[in-house]
Amino acid sequence: MTATATAPHPTLDEASLGRSAALLEKVLFEVKRVVVGQDRFLERVLIALLAQGHLLVEGVPGLAKTLTVKTLARALDCRFGRVQFTPDLMPADLVGTRIYHPHSGEFSTALGPVFTNLLLADEINRAPAKVQSALLEVMQERQVTIAGHTHTVPAPFVVMATQNPIETEGTYALPEAQVDRFMMKVLIDYPSEGEEFVVIERALAAPPEVQAVLSPDQLATMQAQVQQVYVDPGLIHHVVRLVTATRDASLLAQARLTGLLSFGASPRASIALVQAARALALLRGRGYVVADDLNDLALDVLRHRVVLSYDALAQGLTADAVLMRLLQAVPSRAAPADADAA
């Protein structure tokens, strides 16, 4: 099946697209005045903000994860919160609790650190199941319930949770239901020699003052624009085939991946991939999604949603290695815009 060479049907005018792309470029420039490298990570955080999703980040300590999100919050004029997850953390430490005042005989509600715009959940896998459950509600529902009363978190709201891939002692495996709530899982690597040299230079000087470039209201407008980004039905069909292939035995056999995946991705992965691709298209100044947007994001959206079999682990395979072979076996179909350009 090939895509028909018809013009795309974007619902966003060029002027509004240009303004949004220019503002987002200013945000990136402002953050990069402080943060060196981490371009891919920063782009993924912006995509999560635009698509109203959440990020799971895996990387060793000291790679500027906290600095990146904190700087981005300043550039967006948003509130930033950080919670260090530990084995003794309680749900009340995260969402808040009721406090009794003996002098007046009344209760008041003290809201927890989740009531912010950008929440950094540091080393999330060190917290017990009760805390994971409390975070799951606020991630999915964007609200918390305290003593029977519902409190809505401010918008925008994005959770960026980190995991340390080195230490596993004293950690709790994240429930599959919670892992699936993260739109993307991003892997962060060490900087290059040149980037690390600049990091040290900047660390020896006074940090620059970060200016607010985008207001929360402007960000909300861009989030609405993401919902208007056009996605060709042919590309949606490709996403469905790709995600279905992770759990279809015949398609896995076609890709010579039989027995390597125990569980595949759910339909939530299909939705996440399309939504993230729409946000990436807006970030790149387009009112429509192209195949490259999906290909760029496929690993980030799928790597935490597939479960490798014992055979795959025995062969030393990673989720990325299996998914790369799957992507090659399920070739993308060009969107109409790609066909026109050709």
TrEMBL record:
<feature type="domain" description="ATPase AAA-3">
    <location>
        <begin position="54"/>
        <end position="184"/>
    </location>
</feature>
<dbReference type="Pfam" id="PF17863">
    <property type="entry name" value="AAA_lid_2"/>
</dbReference>
<dbReference type="Pfam" id="PF07726">
    <property type="entry name" value="AAA_3"/>
</dbReference>
<keyword id="KW-0547">Nucleotide-binding</keyword>
<feature type="domain" description="ChlI/MoxR AAA lid">
    <location>
        <begin position="260"/>
        <end position="323"/>
    </location>
</feature>
<keyword id="KW-0067">ATP-binding</keyword>
<dbReference type="GO" id="GO:0005524">
    <property type="term" value="F:ATP binding"/>
</dbReference>
<comment type="similarity">
    <text>Belongs to the MoxR family.</text>
</comment>
<dbReference type="GO" id="GO:0016887">
    <property type="term" value="F:ATP hydrolysis activity"/>
</dbReference>
<dbReference type="InterPro" id="IPR011703">
    <property type="entry name" value="ATPase_AAA-3"/>
</dbReference>
<protein>
    <submittedName>
        <fullName>ATPase</fullName>
    </submittedName>
</protein>
<dbReference type="InterPro" id="IPR041628">
    <property type="entry name" value="ChlI/MoxR_AAA_lid"/>
</dbReference>
<dbReference type="InterPro" id="IPR050764">
    <property type="entry name" value="CbbQ/NirQ/NorQ/GpvN"/>
</dbReference>
<dbReference type="InterPro" id="IPR027417">
    <property type="entry name" value="P-loop_NTPase"/>
</dbReference>
